[in-house]
Amino acid sequence: MNGVEEEPTIAFGLDLMLADEGGRSTPLPGGHAADYQFTYRPNWVLPGMTPPDQAGAPVLGFSRANLRPGDQSHAVIVALFGYKTTQWQDVHPGSVLPMYEGARVVGHGTVLWTQPTVWPLPESDKARFLSWLEAPQAGAQQ
Fold this sequence. Notes:
Radius of gyration: 14 Å
Strand order of the largest sheet: 4-3-8-9-1-7-5
CATH architecture: Beta Barrel
Helix content: under 10%
Shape: globular
CATH class: Mainly Beta
Low-confidence stretches: none
Strand content: 35-45%
Structural class: mainly beta
């Protein structure tokens, strides 16, 4: 036991589209190398929320590196407080989540899959989700 208490949460696989105009003015380093995992921490508007209400879910990784405005990529996010923020439980495949940096919408993610997990993310789940980013057609539920 490592002394860190695990918190039940939910991971999501997204088809992410960065906003062309009005979003980011600089590229995201992207990718899913260890140095970039969970370093990008946008917020998301969940079903039933009205902006400016948002919920946090850091990005484990992207399927592409150096994402520019207008780019599309797959992404894996892990909800902070996935079962304490009850709206996360209303997010299902097909849900579209606006992605925010502060008050700006910088993209939209369409949910492709959801998977219960815990925080901190176990290495086995991390490996499975990163594998999905490398070959998204395989699915992350395997």
